[in-house]
Specification:
- With 327 residues, the protein is α/β, with parallel strands linked by helices.
- It folds into 3 domains: 83 residues, Arc Repressor Mutant, subunit A (Orthogonal Bundle), CATH 1.10.10; 113 residues, D-Maltodextrin-Binding Protein, domain 2 (3-Layer(aba) Sandwich); 97 residues, Periplasmic binding protein-like II (D-Maltodextrin-Binding Protein, domain 2), CATH 3.40.190.
- The chain is 47% helix and 18% strand.
- Strand 1 and strand 2 form a beta hairpin.
Amino acid sequence: MDIKFTTNANIIKALEVFVAVVETGQMTAAARLTGMTQSAASQHIGTLEKHYDVKLLDRSTRPVKPTQAGVMMYRHAGRILQAVGELASDMRHQGPTPISRLRLGLQASIATTLSPGLVRMAKDRFGVQDMVLHAGQSGDHEALLRTKQADIAITSDPLLDMDGLERHAVLTEAFLLVLPPGFDQPVLDLEQVLRHLPLVRFADTTNVGRRIGQHLRRLRLQPERVIQADRSSMVTACVADGMGFTLLTPTLLIDGLVERMPLDLRPLPGARMSRSITVVARDGELGELPKAFAEYARVSLVDQIAGQMGKIGSDALAGLEAEEEPA
């Protein structure tokens, strides 16, 4: 059934889909972020093009790119969706409690650890009545915040290119060398490890995958692309089964260690690398909640890491006590 602009809500939904397509470069990813099938997302774009009698996307390229008309539509859509999001936020906060509904994006690797405590805190301390939780990668969180489908995110990307956000540091963590059980070869550098084992890596579509790729290029290493995955639990499962080694941070290892996967954790040899986890929210909309979420996440993750990984996990929390909130 064709989608027609019978209401303003249809137009807003079509604009949300269009923005998601432009920012992800993929109709499939945009459909997933906006909670619909790829067919429905395509219909929204087609109806938008028909309504304004323009071609908005160049579908012959990968990733999909906006046309000249699409660039103009993207600018207008951003302003419209921001205004609609601000209206929705103001209306939600006029309910019987200061924050009646909260939409939270969580890094997939820490979602299981943090979700129960954050939900409890939101309801008991801040009076939130309704919570919507999204687990995913940092790219998912950016799209959700841009399209006003999330109010706050706990993510490995502080989204410094987005204006109008407040940011609260959670922790900074060093990457570790993760080996399969029983690995008994010398480990002076990653090149030595690669002589014996392939690298099980995160897909380049993920933020951590890109970070690891950059690190390897700096070391002038080009491991074969044998196994790629977009979830830490899949990566650790392959390593635990002896299929290779990987580079992960403590928070990326939590789920695997909770499931008692046999892993040999060591400091990363040679040049070190790290990543940060940050709470990001639209500036000033949620009062003290974002800061409280960051404080809870820090304590909860540190306790979990210390319990699962002992000294090597604690040592990998680089500069935690001195970490200051980014501007």
